[in-house]
Specification:
The chain is an all-beta fold and 103 residues long. It has a domain at 24-93. The protein is built from no helices and eight strands. A four-stranded antiparallel sheet has the order 1-2-3-4, with no helix packed on it. Strands 5-8 form a two-stranded antiparallel ribbon. Strands 6-7 form a two-stranded antiparallel sheet. A hairpin with a 2-residue loop joins strand 2 and strand 3 (41-46). The chain is globular, with a radius of gyration of 15 Å. It starts with 23 loop residues before the first strand and ends in an 8-residue tail after the last strand.
Amino acid sequence: MQKVIWTFDPFKDDQFHGLKRGVTYWENGDQKRIYYVGGPRLYCLDAKNGKPISTFGSGGSVELAKGYDREVTYSSYNSPPAIYKNLIILGSSYYRAGEPKMR
């Protein structure tokens, strides 16, 4: 029987518990990290204990809808992050209020 080592769910109080499409594992020496997108945020967790890495973004996560030249009212991330060397790559789609959604 497998034993649960740790859990992390920032959406535990939400009705749908956030949408998760997978995780990405990264390591460099003693640093072992798990990255995943939940809602509009990219999370970075310590793979050993499941705690957010406080030095990543703000308290262990980055708000992905910030930094655009216009307000983003909806964003979608349908795959886990990819990591190349020390660069995190995310595919996404978004739209702004007043624009038609793709059909």
